[in-house]
Amino acid sequence: MNPINRVTTVPAWMKITLKLAGIYNILWGSWIVLFPHHFFDLVGMVQPNYPGIWQSVGMIVGVYGLGYYIAAFDPVRHWPIILVGFLGKLFGPVGLVLYAWRGELPWVFGWVNVTNDLIWLVPFAIILYYSWKQESKA
């Protein structure tokens, strides 16, 4: 069988996790695009001078969400999408710590990393490991 057309059976929780990550990211990204000041108001931060930059972040997150949703149909085949998402979810909190430590960003901004990054890190890592194991068998 052509490996491109191969669909690997994966545990159901992986597909569910990726679909949830996709839906969450699409919704979060849409929220930021449509209401760019709302997050800053919720956490008590000064609204950004250039909301378009923040809206661009929302657009990127929403597009990633579409990728996660598509990857849910065959996580082993679409592991590169999951890897890119994993790296973003890893480096987002790293960036927060760096900029907050230097006093360039308030620590309260870290709430965005809890729901956007940290809760997805372990499941994405497990899915990537599973995909690697499956590909090494092929």
Task: State the helix count.
Answer: 5
Query: What is the molecular shape?
Result: elongated
What's the order of the H and E elements?
HHHHH
**CA-CA gap between termini:** 11 Å
User: Which percent range describes the beta-strand content?
Assistant: under 5%
Give the fraction of residues assigned to helices: over 70%
Biggest sheet, open or closed, and with what strands and sense? none
The SS-based structural class is mainly alpha
Low-confidence parts lasting 5 or more residues at pLDDT below 50? Answer: none
The pLDDT mean sits at 93
Radius of gyration: 17 Å
The total domain count is: 1
Report the count of strand segments: 0
